[in-house]
Amino acid sequence: MSELREQAGKVKEAARALAILPTLRKNAILLAMAEALEKRQGEILEANAVDIAAAESKGTSPAMLDRLALNEGRIYSMAEGLRKVAGLPDPVGEVIGGGTAASGLRITKRRVPLGVVGIIYEARPNVTSDAMGLCLKTGNGVILKGGSEAVASNAAIARIMTEAGISRGLPEDVVCFVSDTSRECVNEMMKMNGLIDVLIPRGGSGLIQAVVRGATVPVIETGVGNCHIFVDMSADLQMARKIVVNAKTSRPSVCNAAESLLVHREIAPAFLPDVFAALKEKGVRLYGCPESRKYGEISAATEEDYAKEYLDLAMSVKVVADVREAVRHINRYGTQHSEAIVTRNIENARYFQEMVDAAAVYVNASTRFTDGEEFGLGAEIGISTQKLHARGPMGLTELTTYKYFVEGDGQIR
Amino acid sequence: MSELREQAGKVKEAARALAILPTLRKNAILLAMAEALEKRQGEILEANAVDIAAAESKGTSPAMLDRLALNEGRIYSMAEGLRKVAGLPDPVGEVIGGGTAASGLRITKRRVPLGVVGIIYEARPNVTSDAMGLCLKTGNGVILKGGSEAVASNAAIARIMTEAGISRGLPEDVVCFVSDTSRECVNEMMKMNGLIDVLIPRGGSGLIQAVVRGATVPVIETGVGNCHIFVDMSADLQMARKIVVNAKTSRPSVCNAAESLLVHREIAPAFLPDVFAALKEKGVRLYGCPESRKYGEISAATEEDYAKEYLDLAMSVKVVADVREAVRHINRYGTQHSEAIVTRNIENARYFQEMVDAAAVYVNASTRFTDGEEFGLGAEIGISTQKLHARGPMGLTELTTYKYFVEGDGQIR
């Protein structure tokens, strides 16, 4: 048996004790972890400096360096995140169904932890503290496998949190930080059926697809968002322009940012020149269909552009005949994340919401709202783009499963 | 593109229309299907005779032939099953959460169909009508891939139901019956990401493990049950004997039947001779640990016996020191299906229920109750032994996902 499997076995075993830890104890552990992150920030910043130096020597891009860099403010945010999770209601133990069966059996359907959650992630070191906090609050053991570029920072964060947790009663071995950042190690994690109950990849679409394709352990697919805004014929064009500009430019690197603009043919002449100007002013590169290109100097879109999650100041544009063509286009190229229609027509709004296959379907609002915070979940481990188990923002509840507790007095069947 | 992929694409497209079909329409379709099965039973029996003849010529076992065989009574049961599903509440459209966000967005979390469900199954032709009924009631397209031994029967059932459905407004192409029973075809189905939303294997553990290991499409693992009964020191021994005999012998071929008996060392002398006699009287072969074999003439258990789902009149036996050893044994060898303790001790009951990792954990009752009917779900597409999405008996609700419907009046972020 490999060392990783052996460690995972220990996590699984330790997670059984964590699963029944009272909420008050778990909250105390999270608060101690937050305090330790702040108190021992020197160690974290030192480790982070090692990662940054290595990244710089490899010629890493400034944007990437920024994602990697920690400072006092960012460490404070990580600690605040843990305090916030400590303050959220604990879903573990919640009764979500049941009754007395015809046989007289008393059946209680109760939320319980998933068991062991595996997180495979890239870049941002704050994922280490976020994911650990959410998994521990929900009574799950956690195996963390971060990217090589942040390995020193991640290891320091995990070590400091674990030590602080154990001092407050966290069962030993419930957290496993995998410092081996090799590809083989990821491959092994993906096949650890019986040791890992669910695998959540967080990162770019390359990572996510590799995990979805390669894993035999159940996976929750997250985060890739090729989101569209469809501006219908009857749209309030001023509202439409604001929504498009916001959805594209307010934070282009996140998954709920819009990547593609669909415009009804009838209002294209009135809308496109205006929105092109507004987007160009924000530095957005535009790739359009032949018809859209009549309304501004923009590049030609390829088939690839329509399927692309730019995560950048770039956007594809297409003129469509009606809401039906818009829906067909979205169901073909979208990633089932977040989609929006801007319209005044109630029938088209309903048709769009019913027929578009996505986690969140908006009428007259920016796709940027798809988020655990905005949806009232309090915190978020990721945004699911699959349909099994969880769809859209995943909070604490989505890190649980349930168990039937059944009590009888000798019933046989 | 293969023919199967092309067909699956049509199912996916057609399923969008099915997803918004009103409940009354879906119920009328199910009732018409039930009627057609009865009216056209001659065709079904003819097809079944072809399957039976082929099976006989291959020297198939009598038990297998019995599972394959249809008659008027069994066809009536299939029709009754459809009528029952028609009478169940429709989960599609149910509002399961939401509210008005701080931004003023109105968020409604509503159940929607999964999309396209793939069922890979063996033997019993009634799975064809059961699975079709449950998937259609929940607005899902369905791709059915039955075993080669029942291909003529399954094809006849699917054809008759589809024709009757279409005559009452079922969108064409929402059902795809795969008559190619080759292994390659199963392999292809397992990789149809984007075309199949979930794959549910129903059959023996060989089939289920092959699908879990080979699929890149999300899978719900069902049905393998290595269920245990632990008889604690304080148990009512008469109750314990009844529960053990019932759980083992009332229907040994099903997944909620008990496969293993654990007995507290202190009561082994008082309990084992008695329960061995009762089990032997029912024809049960016993495989025990050295200590258990002091109490009766039974075979020696191997490590393999403890991991085995016999699905037959056979049972493994082990004497344990206490509830902790029982729980450790179950968590090591069990399949997270159904587990039971017989005890009068409230602490041990609680410890067992909390610590055993399974879909249903019983106190003083037979494991045989883990069933959609008994749990009040009305019908069942299978029993999940995984933790994602659904655990234990899966009814109509488990064949849905949800979607966030979000309405604004120009919100940007």
TrEMBL record, chains A, B:
CDD domains: ALDH_F18-19_ProA-GPR
Molecular functions (GO terms): glutamate-5-semialdehyde dehydrogenase activity; NADP binding
Known pathway: Amino-acid biosynthesis; L-proline biosynthesis; L-glutamate 5-semialdehyde from L-glutamate: step 2/2
Enzymatic reactions: L-glutamate 5-semialdehyde + phosphate + NADP(+) = L-glutamyl 5-phosphate + NADPH + H(+)
Signal peptide residue numbers: none
Matches recorded under Pfam families: Aldedh
UniProt feature coiled coil, ranges: none
Subcellular compartments: Cytoplasm
GO biological process: L-proline biosynthetic process
Database matches in Gene3D superfamilies: Aldehyde Dehydrogenase, Chain A, domain 1, Aldehyde Dehydrogenase, Chain A, domain 2
The keyword Zinc is assigned to this record: no
Entry keyword set: Amino-acid biosynthesis, Cytoplasm, NADP, Oxidoreductase, Proline biosynthesis
Domain Aldehyde dehydrogenase: 11-281
SUPFAM superfamilies according to UniProt: ALDH-like (SSF53720)
First-level EC class: oxidoreductase
Function, as annotated: Catalyzes the NADPH-dependent reduction of L-glutamate 5-phosphate into L-glutamate 5-semialdehyde and phosphate. The product spontaneously undergoes cyclization to form 1-pyrroline-5-carboxylate.
Family: Belongs to the gamma-glutamyl phosphate reductase family.
Listed name of the protein: Gamma-glutamyl phosphate reductase
Gene behind this protein: proA
